[in-house]
Amino acid sequence: MRKVLVWQNLGSPRAIALYHEMGYMYWSDWGENAKLERAGMDGSDRKVLISMNLGWPNGLAVDKAGSQLLWADAHTERIEASDLEGRNRRILVSPVQHPYGLTLLGAHIYWTDWQTRKIQRADKDTGENVIVVRDNLPGLMDIQAVDRTHALGYNKCGDKNGGCSHLCLPNPVSYSCACPTGILLKDDGRTCDPSPDTYLLFSSRDSIRRISLDTDDHTDVYVPIKELNNVISLDYDSVEGKIYYTDVFLDVIRRVQLDGNGLETIIGEGLKTTDGLSVDWVARNLYWTDTGANTIEVSRLDGRHRKVLINNSLDEPRAIAVFPRKGYLFWTDWGHVAKIERAHLDGSDRKVIINTDLGWPNGLTLDYDTRRIFWVDAHLDRIENADLNGKTRQILVSQVSHPFALTQEGRWIYWTDWQTKSIQRVDKYSGRSQETVLGNMEGLMDIIVVSPLRQTGSNPCGVNNGGCSHLCFARSYDFVCACPDDLVNEVCSTIPGYLPSPPHPTNNSEKISGPSSPNTQGERADSTPGVTAGSCSEAEASDGLCTHNGAIPASAGDKLRVPHIIAGSLSLLCLLLLICALLIYRHRRAKLSDPALGTLTYSNPSYRTSTQEVKIEAVHRPGACHLQRHRKEAHPDNGFTKEKIRILEGFGLLSGEESEWDDLKQVKPSRGSILRDHVCIKTDTVSLQASTASLDLTETQQLLQEEQSETGSVTLPPSPERRASLPDTGWRGRHLPSTESEV
């Protein structure tokens, strides 16, 4: 018989010690927020005793005679003590190397040390007289002292189990009767319902049933739930003892108690076909797949704060499972390209872990002990497993008929089969010992295990929702806060520990500002004063500090400074990059426009022997003349041949020799003026027809006239005073006109 006593606000609980005469239990937690706690042995009256200056509080012991609590911290490298209320704290032994286990016997404390590989002893009150009891003991872990001469203590559960049918749990005042997790205590406060500790829950279209796994009698029992039509998926929350299920005929997600009472519709709209369902029992969130909408969504367990996590690259998402302790979310997709994917619980770091040798991956479950995923494939007719990264893949059972869903408990894998109309199980390690648990069942769908050991562990979201105002998502390395998609007239913060109050109603043109505005100042969990809110800036929006009504009040605490410092640093970096880009641009522009430069780059397209059209793309830069030079060779007909034409990127620089460029004087005035020694022709695209035949002067003139409407206009060159610095083009004129009229 097992019962979960404490499951919330736990990081990494380690050592535990009992003071059963007083009805107290003490434990150490070396998680992110290390602490020492105390509660009644029934889990009542829980209290944090010490939470400051702790690192890795490993060993723990209660000195009943001295009324003190002792612990060993492997991070601070010391052994400390306090009274049983966590007061009067003092250091007993320091330094110690890496203490792990701690116990008490008589007037001494004993501890194990990983680094020195020793068992050591010291005076329990002063910490003096440290000696080595044993050394050279590798792999030391816990240590406990046994005193056969010491009389055992007593509490009220020592007399006929306190009259309880199952568990009697002492507390500081008296005691209480309790039942194993998943079993209800009757109204008499002493007797447990005869329901089993561990059982299977399964759906068969129009019913939800359960089977005991603690007895050989596998008779199924109906869960009396009204209005069941087509139940596809199931899950269970052991904290509140409620079943969650999807009914695709009614397109709803509902929850109900194990006895069928308290039926609630938590999601009643915006659903198409919800194939998969999974409860995060730590963060109190609910995940589901919608194969009709091709989405994966999440909400709180009561249906509030709904949010779409993934809505792309999904084809036919089906089964879904969460691993709260690791911060992971897994799902199957049996679409055109079948695959199994993994992401963090917030939908980030999405990864395809298996996409080969898959057919119809229907069911999916997690073995939290071995940290492996199991799935059934109804097309390949087999059950497989792999590690959480999709590696070390193994076939567990290779010949199954038509499996749909599966679950795990202990050493067994259970699954439903459409073709055999049965529930089967097999050894999860060997794939052997296959047997039928229940047969002759029509319309079998999902199956889950309800067990006190199934839903254990914790993560930061289990502590006050991680300090998040709406949604908290654990990840493998941290946690994040998020806001729902359906946020209306609410203030949502993505900063852990910031608990804003509702915004003051304002019209669209009114700003929330000034210390006198009511209900505009949120409060942090530690009651640190905040700053009144104003209009929402881009920086605030990027930091998650905005709502529909403006900006969330910013606190003076470090948690709010860091995002603004980062945003300011990024803004400064962007400004520096912009300045550098501008300087580089101006430098390159100056180089291109400076006529004093002695070199120019020419781009010469190659021409084929056949007639073709050559397009030269030009981008005009003010003050720069890219060159286009036509070399005129001695030829019998004074024409141009295609072998003697050189196209020089973009614009043209022409010699002013009249005798050699008479053919260009026929350019119409509307296209500009040709100056004494050079012109700059502005053009977007110039098309030149080249062939093996020679071009005489008339054809050349004709070509220029035909291009009039396409080549743009002839623009003025750089000023005459800069003319002398132009590069030598290789042309020498016999006579240069001295005036524009001569030209």
- State the major sheet: 4 strands, antiparallel
Question: How big a fraction of the residues is strand?
Answer: 25-35%
| Number of H/I helices | 3
CA-based shape: globular
**Overall pLDDT level:** 76
Structural class, please? mainly beta
Span of the ends, CA to CA: 112 Å
The counted number of beta strands is 48
Unreliable runs: 502-561, 591-695, 709-743
The value of Rg in angstroms is 41 Å
Describe the strand arrangement of the main beta sheet, using strand numbers: 1-2-3-4
Helix content: under 10%
Structure commentary:
There is one protein chain. With 743 residues, the protein is mainly beta. 7% of the residues lie in helices and 33% in strands. The strands form 15 sheets. The protein has a 4-stranded antiparallel β-sheet, with no helix packed on it. It has a 4-stranded antiparallel β-sheet with strand order 5-6-7-8, with no helix packed on it. A hairpin with a 5-residue loop joins strand 27 (328-333) and strand 28. The protein is globular and about 75 Å long. 35% of the residues are buried. Mean pLDDT is 76; it is low at 502-561, 591-695 and 709-743.
